[in-house]
Amino acid sequence: MSTVQIEIKDGVGTLRLAGPRGNAMNETLIADLSSAIRTVGGESSVKVVLLASAHPRLFCPGLDLVSLSERKRSELGAFMLDFSTALTDLFALRKPVVAAVNGAAVAGGCLLALTADWRVLRRGAAMGLNEVKVGVPLPWSAVMLLKTAVPNFGHTAVALLGRNFENEAASAVGLANEVAETEAFDAVVAERLAEFADKDAFAFGVTKAYLRGATVASMREREVGLLDEFLDGWFSDSTQGRIAKAVAALKAKS
Predict the structure, then answer these.
(1) Residue 126 forms part of a structural domain
(2) Is residue 225 domain-resident?
(3) Tens digits of per-residue pLDDT, 149-187?
(4) Which single residue of 44, 69, 119, 155 has CA 20 to 30 Å from 177?
(5) Radius of gyration over alpha carbons of the chain, in Å?
(6) What angle do CA 128, 25, 236 make, to 5 degrees?
(7) Alpha-carbon distance 79 to 74, whole Å?
């Protein structure tokens, strides 16, 4: 696959994002990610899944505005449903998932990290959800993911004010489980993978399914019915203006 590298070794199934523009999420990346999730989910030798990035200082910046800004409403709606399905499938995976957040994980990139059972954040990397600041509501599945990770006291700062969080502030609000120094990052991730891999696979999978079952069901059942509210926000005049400015800035950098 062109945007997601898969490696299965010593019980670890690694899904390493390797897409253009720092793993900006478009149709190709989401299709590749969905296929990769099915691969590691169906491989009996995989005891734990590592979600990581091939980019040295960037995990995922969210949606690929450059390509998605050109989509019609129906096309963007289809993409958002595929995106939601990928997030839900990864969140529902009965195997442990560890996210190695080596760099910025914002907007959709933050949501991707939130699907994991454990998130190791490299010191200095930022996590956050800026959808409301851009002018689109958080999709229903995104809200469900947020509520599983972030306590009620953090919802305003994370979802409504759209703040980014680094280091211990990110762990305090629930976006990260632990912070690792740059020089120790890989070692901490390896330690956490080993800890999860040591657990009984059946007991872990059933317990995880019980813990996440109601949330998974809600994500699958309500996303389609609430999609129009996201699309209304995306295609509003004010949001289209913000997206156009962001796209122009991204193109200027490339």
Answers:
(1) yes
(2) no
(3) 999 999 999 999 999 999 999 999 999 999 999 999 999
(4) 44
(5) 17
(6) 75
(7) 9
- Map residue 60 onto helix, strand or coil: strand
| Backbone φ and ψ of 19, nearest 5° | -90, 165
Residue 226 to residues 13, 73, 105, 216, 221, Cα–Cα distance (Å): 33, 14, 25, 16, 10
Distance CA 119, CA 171 (A): 9
Cα distance between the two ends of the chain: 23
State the greatest distance between any 2 C-alpha atoms of the chain, in Å, as a whole number: 52
- Report how far residue 213's alpha carbon sits from residue 91's, in angstroms, rounded to the nearest whole number: 10
Tokens standing for residue 159:
């979802």
Q: Is residue 68, in this structure, part of any structural domain at all?
A: yes
Domain that holds residue 93: 4-197
The whole-model pTM stands at: 0.94
Which pair of tokens denotes residue 37? 């999730």
Task: Give residue for tokens 């019915």.
Answer: 225
**C-alpha closest to that of 159 among 213, 110, 119:** 110
Number of domains the chain contains: 1
Provide the CATH number for the domain around residue 101.
3.90.226.10
Helix (H, G, I), strand (E, B) or coil at 22: helix
